[in-house]
Amino acid sequence: MAAHLRALGFRVENYSRGIPWAEEERILVLDLYLRSGRLDKTDPRVEELCRVLDALTVHSTGSDPHHGRSTDTVALKLGNFAWLDPNEKGGASNFARGDADVWDRYASDEDALGAIVAAIQQERGLPAERPAEPPRQRVSRVAVEAQKVEQFQFSVPGHDIVASRREQGLVLTYVEYLESQGHTVSRGKYRPDGSDSVLASDLVDETDRVLYEAKGDVRRASVRMAIGQLLDYRRFEPPSTRLAVLLPRMPAQDLIDLILTVPATAVWRTTNSFASLQP
């Protein structure tokens, strides 16, 4: 009967407490909680998540694969995560051990959580437990070449796409300049411990041991982002490595002062060459 009603477009909810929460379900609820916080059962985002949970096949071993998580139960599960969240007051204190396990594993690693959520939504399931691996190389060098933009920031529609394209051209022009001076250049690729993700710097001057992060504009937000990226990458480089922000033109004096406090070098393009200030 339930399957027939669903085929007609009805939503059938099963309020039985006999169906345990699967890890995939907890992960999707945690993802919603971290994005939106505690939500009332009438919130459209809760209703949408119920539809997503209803489509999962994690309970397909029974006679009816559609377990029908209700908006009430999803709202309560959000409350469980609120109780586990040290930044929140209140919430449902009767959380399950599985809730705490998912919170401990993913609440502090939202990059990993996003990858797992994508895998669940694409019906690829949870990654299998892998055997212990030998230590992997944390740092590798690759050639500097025209590259795909790995990520865009869309805070200003269209602006950041243009800036990213300018950034690539700026890097390649500066590579030509350094190589004309007899320098050897590369890009650094870094693998943080315990992560499958790989970070990539824009440019490393192997001759002078300078790590560069380029930006296609001189906005404060871009300079601050470059500084953060440089500090992240520097952990993987030798202690003697110096830092530099590569820009398309001379930034405002206040931004130069900010860069120098890191300390780092500000390098920018001029009419015929490049100029810089040393820390």
Rg, Å, rounded: 25 Å
What is the C-level CATH assignment of the largest domain? Alpha Beta
Q: Termini, distance in Å?
A: 74 Å
Helix and strand run: HHHHHHEHEEEEHEHEE
* Portion of residues within helices: 40-55%
Low-confidence stretches: 61-66, 148-159
Number of helices: 9
Strand count, sense and barrel status of the largest sheet are: 8 strands, mixed
Report on the structure:
With 279 residues, this protein is an alpha+beta fold. The chain folds into 2 domains: 2-121, no CATH class; 139-277, Trna Endonuclease, Chain: A, domain 1, CATH 3.40.1350. Helices cover 41% and strands 13% of the residues. It contains 9 helices and 8 strands. Strands 1, 2, 3, 4, 5, 6, 7 and 8 form an 8-stranded mixed sheet that branches. Helix 2 (23-36) crosses helix 5 (97-106). The protein is elongated, with a radius of gyration of 25 Å. The chain starts with a helix and ends with a strand. The model is unreliable at 61-66 and 148-159 (pLDDT under 50).
Structure summary:
Helices cover 41% and strands 13% of the residues.
Features:
single chain, Trna Endonuclease, Chain: A, domain 1, 41% helix, elongated
Summarize the SSE layout with pairings.
Layout: H1 2-7, H2 23-36, H3 44-55, H4 71-84, H5 97-106, H6 110-121, E1 139-142, H7 159-180, E2 185-190, E3 199-200, E4 203-205, E5 210-214, H8 220-234, E6 242-247, H9 253-260, E7 265-269, E8 274-277
Parallel strand pairs: 5-6, 6-7
Antiparallel strand pairs: 1-2, 2-3, 2-4, 4-5, 7-8
Helix pairs in contact: 2-3, 2-4, 2-5, 2-6
